[in-house]
Amino acid sequence: MNAEPSLHPPSPADDVVIRATRPNDYEGIAALGNMPGYRWGTLRLPHQTPEATRKWIENMGPGNVSLVVEKSGRIIGSGGFERHQGRRSHVAYLGMGLHDDFHGQGIGTRLLRELIMVADDWMNLRRIELTVYVDNTPAIALYKRHGFEIEGTHKEFAFRSGAFVDAYAMARIKP
User: Fold this and answer.
1) Which residues form the domain of 65?
2) I need a surface site. Which of 27, 104, 117, 172 has the fewest CB within 10 A?
């Protein structure tokens, strides 16, 4: 069997698996990006095409990590980071999100822990950066629980749902 082993095998109590993104995951990831709640916390525009997502997966750089979360064989989350180059090669920018129906179940925590483990134990990253909208209270709390700190505020960071919204710059320095 050629299947890649799961980074996070399911426990007997659930069927959630966290694994590397595969080229054929493009439709599931595009479907996530088109969900109103998922899109609300990202910089994605409505109507993301599966073809654009496929190209993004195919063009991923060698220093980047991309994971998906599956439940019962269905993609319900994604996350990853893009490693910087040169004098900032110790830094990566993180992004993640979950299906609208799976918030508050600990799945985001599992995904973030997996990403941090890869960053700390396999890539020797010292700093993980992210931006999060100031009104995304659950995400801010999740990041803070995992050692991220607010370093500043980007005023009018993005245009979302007809209005500008601020975002926090957050980072975690490897302890």
Assistant:
1) 16-125
2) 104
Nearest Cα to Cα of residue 22 among 75, 63, 101, 84:
75
Classified as helix, coil or strand, 55 is helix
CB 77, CB 68: distance < 8 Å: yes
pLDDT by residue, tens only, the chain of 175 residues: 344 444 444 444 578 999 999 999 999 999 999 999 899 998 888 888 999 999 999 999 888 999 999 999 999 999 999 999 999 999 999 999 999 999 999 999 999 999 999 999 999 999 999 999 999 999 999 999 999 999 999 999 999 999 999 999 999 999 8
* CATH code of the domain covering residue 110: 3.40.630.30
Whole-prediction pTM: 0.88
Number of folded domains in the chain?
1
